[in-house]
Design brief:
Strand order of the largest sheet: 1-2
Largest sheet: 2 strands, antiparallel
Structural class: mainly alpha
Radius of gyration: 34 Å
Distance between the termini: 34 Å
Number of helices: 31
Strand content: under 5%
Oligomer: single chain
Helix content: 55-70%
Number of strands: 2
Amino acid sequence: MKKPLLHTVKDWVNERTGLITFFSEFLHEEIPGGTRFSYTLGSACLFLLTIQIITGIWQCFYYVPTIDYAYSSLNYLRQQVPFGWLIHGIHYWGGTLFTIIVGLHMFRVFIWGSYKKPREMVWLVGIVLILLTVGFMFTGPVLPWDKNGYWAGQVGIGIAGSVPIVGSFTQSILQGANKMGQMALLRMYVLHVAILPALIGGFVMLHLIAFRTYGESGPWKKEKRKSVGYFWPEQIFKDVLVTFLIFLLLVYLSAFFPAPFSGLADPMDTLVTPKPAWSFLFLYQILKFFPGPLEPLGTAGVPLMIILLFASLPFVDRSPEKNPFKRGFVVLFGFAFVGMILYFTWLGYIYRSPAEMAQMEPAVSLVSSQGENDKIKSAERLTAMIEANANKKATGQELFKTLGCTECHTTTGVASNKQGPDLLMAKGNNRSRDWLHTQIIAPQAHNPKTIMPPFAQLNERKINLLVNYLESLTPPEGVAAPKAQAPAPTAGGPASSGAVSIKNGEQLFNSLGCAQCHTIQGTVSNKIGPDLIMAIKKDKPAKDWLKTQLMTPQAHNPLSVMPSFASRLNDAQMNDMVNFLSSLSTRKSAAAPAAGEASSSETAESQGSSGPASSGGSVKSIGIIGDREHGEILFHQSCIMCHGPQGNPKTLGFTGYLTGSQAPKGVPSLNPIDRAVYNVDPQLFAQHIDQFIQHGIPNTEGGPNMPDFGDSHALTQAQIADIEAYVLSLNGVDRTMIMNPGIDPKEFFWMLLAITSVIVMLAALYWFLMKLLKI
C-alpha cells in the first residue's frame, strides 16, 4: 500500500535531519516522580526570552540610538504607533519578570539539590546565563535615554570603573568617552541588541543540551521517584498554562501600569537621586558600607565573592543527599542570602538624596493639608515638620533649604530672576549678626513693605544656624567675590565727581543688590523692577526725584516694594548713585540680534549640552514628554511661592501657610487654569503654557513677575517639560496620553482575558479527556 504523501515527506526529512525522531523522544521523555508546576519555571524563562527577542526586534524598527532622538523615538512608538504601547510594555515588564523568574528557577534548583553530580555543568551554565541576564538589565534601561536610564547607566558604569586594575579599561569600553553621552548610548545599544543576544542564545542551547542529557532530578524521596510522568501531554499542558498566565500578566501590567515616562535625561538636574537599575540596588546599597579606599572591596570583592560562592557550590556540597530538610546549613544559608538581597534592594529603592528630600518633604505635607480650612493647624503641622527636619539635619544650609528660602534667594554670587536678592552678593554690604538675626525673625523692621515672611517661630539655636550659614557663604570656584559697599568718605571730605562718581555709583548699584530687581540693558526684562535705561530715557527724571526715590520710594508710590536706602548710604554715596543713574540716559541699549541671527540662547541650545536642553541636541520642552512626579518636586522648588502648593494662589505658598499672609496679586491660578490656555490635547496644552515658562510675563497688577525660566536657563528644557506635565495633571490632562492605541489598553486586556479563559477551558477539557482515555 502506498504511503500518504505527508508520511513520505516526514520520512524523507527524518532520514536527512533526524528531527522527527528527536522531537518524538523529546515529547515522550519520562519525568521521575511525575509532572509538577514547579518544573514550569525553566519553560517560563525560555518563553520570556523569546518574547523579549520578538518585542525587541519590533522596537528596533522605530528606535533611534542617538541622545537627540532616543527618548522621542521611543515615545513615538508608545503614543502614536497602534499597539506600540503593548510592544514596549511587554518588553519593559518582560525584562523585569524574566529576571525574577530566572532567580526563582535558580532558587528552585538550589532547594531541590539539582546542582549535584552529574548536573554540575547545567548549574555552571545557568550561572553564566544569570550573568548575561544581569548584562541585559544593565544595558536595557539606558537605551530610552530618560532620567532613570541615564542615571542607572551613570551609576553602573561608575561602579564598574572603580574595580581595581580593570576598572578604567571597563569604563572606557562601556562609556567610550570621558562622560555619559552618544558613545555610551551606542555601545549600550550594540551590547543589548547584538552581543548579549548572541551569547545568551548559545548558552541557552548549551544549557538545554546539558539538561536533557540527565533530565529532571525528580523528588528527593526515593518512593516518590517510582511514579513516572511524561513531558507530553502532562508537563506540556502545565507549561502552556503557565506561559498563558505570564502573557496575560504582561498585558495586564502594560495596560494598567505602563512603563513610566521619567523625562528626558538631564545631567544638570540635582534633584534626581542617581540610582542603578532595580536589579543592582542591593549592590548599590552594600557599597555604602565600603567608603573611600575600601570601595574596591565592594565593587569587585562582593560580586566576585557571590559568583565564586555559587560556582563552587556543586564541588563543596558533594553529599548525594538532596532533601532540603537534611541539608539544613546549606539551605538556611541560601534563605539568608536571598533575604539579604531583598532587604538591601528595598533600602536602595526607598533611598532619596538629601537635595530631593529637602524638596519632597515640604511638598508632601503641603499637599496633604489641602482641603483643611484651619490655617493654624496647617501652620503647626509645617512648623513641626521644620523642627523635625532641623533636628535631623542640624545644619544651617539644610535648614535654609527646608524652610523654602531657595524659593526667593540664590547663593551663587550672581544676579538671578528670583524675588529676593542673591545672598552672596548681599553679603558685600557687611551685615552684622544682629542685623541678620532681625531680618530672619522680623524683616519688616528693616523694610515695612517687604514680602519676606518672618520666621519668628524658629528657636534661637536654629536662628544661629541660619546666621552662621549666611556668614559662611563663599563664592563658587571661578566666581569673583562680591564687592563690599564703598567706605564713607571722611567728614568734610570732598565728594566724588564726574567719571569717578559714576563709577563709584555703579559699584554701589552692584554691591547693594539693585541688579536683583533691575536691569540696565535698555530692553524689556522679567525682573520685578523696570529696566533703568528704558525708564530714565523715557521719563528723564531730575536728580532730586532720583534721590527721593532712593531715600523714600513710597513717597512716589505708596505700594512700592523697593526698600529705602536712606540709612545705608551717606551723602557722598547717595550723590554717586544719583550721578550713575542720571548717566544711564546716555548709555546705549544692548544690541538685539539681527534678523535671521540666532540669539545666544538659541545658539547655545543648538550646540547641545550647553543650552537649555542639557541632555544634548536641539530639543524644546514641548517636544519632551515630562515626568509628572518629578515635575511636582520642581514645582515646589520654583513655583510654590506664588502659585501655592497645588497651583492655586488662593491656597498660598509655603511661607503663606506659616504666616497667614495674603496670596500674591496678579498671579493666575494653574488649578484650574484659564480656559483659554486649557486644552484636552496634551501637546497643545503644553504649547500654551510653555511660552510663559520659557519667556516669563510681567505682572500688571503689582504682584511678582513671572520669571523667564527658559531664557535665563534657570531651568533646563527637561525640567520645564516635567513642570508642564505636572501642571497638565493638575487640570486632569495626561501628558503621556496614548494618541493612537489601536484598541484602548484596558479594553484590550479584557478582550484577551475572555479569549484566554476560553483557551484554558478547552485545554483543561482536552487534558481531562486524555486522562480519561488512559483509564
